Fold this sequence. Notes:
Elements: H1 2-14, H2 18-28, H3 36-47, H4 55-70, H5 87-96, H6 100-108, H7 115-128, H8 135-147, H9 151-163, H10 172-182, H11 190-199, H12 203-209, H13 219-225
Helix pairs in contact: 3-5, 4-6, 4-12, 5-7, 6-12, 7-8, 8-9, 8-10, 9-10
Amino acid sequence: MPWSANANRDRSEIRPTAQTRRSELEARFASAPDSPQLDAEVRAALDDLPKYRNLTALLDHTRHLLHRNLGSRAPFGSGRPSQPLSMADAVQLTQLVQNRHARDFALASISKDTAPRHLALWSEVLNRTPSRFAETPAAIAGIAAWVAGDGASASIALTRSQSAATSPRASGPADLLGAIIDQVLPPTAWPSVRGRILEHADQRVHHALIPHLRPAQTATARAHAFAPEAERPRPSTHTGPTL
Length: 243
């Protein structure tokens, strides 16, 4: 019937193709174009960072930036507006996660509930900062995407991280994300993966995480959040990615 054929044609015209969907996702993980103004804003933001060797100050600042910006983020892809992320916060987050302990903190703060907001935050960090800073934030965004069940975004974020790598050796989060994707791990594996990260994390990371947890959690729940999971398998002879 002519009407049915036209209707089908109309639906096919408005249905996004796989290539269109991929292009849209790639744009969400793109970096800001280089410019003198961007360079000046980056330098100003870096001047306000805590000293690299002051781990307590680095963790406190990481916690502060995540707390301030996660609450104002709409979940990734929701179409709802978010409070704009400042350039200073975006640049500082890219630099903070170059520190292994601040990176462990950022990864361990991801949960099933917060993953869509982490994905929104870290993709916006990428959008506002130069490509030379993209490797680790893109991998963190990819891990958040995987925890949120968004496999397409996780894959594109991994590609983005790899393309921004400055050395043949992948960063810890990129190595971890690559192993997750290669092994086709389900998002339900995240508590065990997170537990492994915390097993190797500095005690100061654990201490910094406690006030970052939701206030509704009880003291018992907070204590259990960092305890090894009874059902978690112990390390085998397989050598997987480590942070």
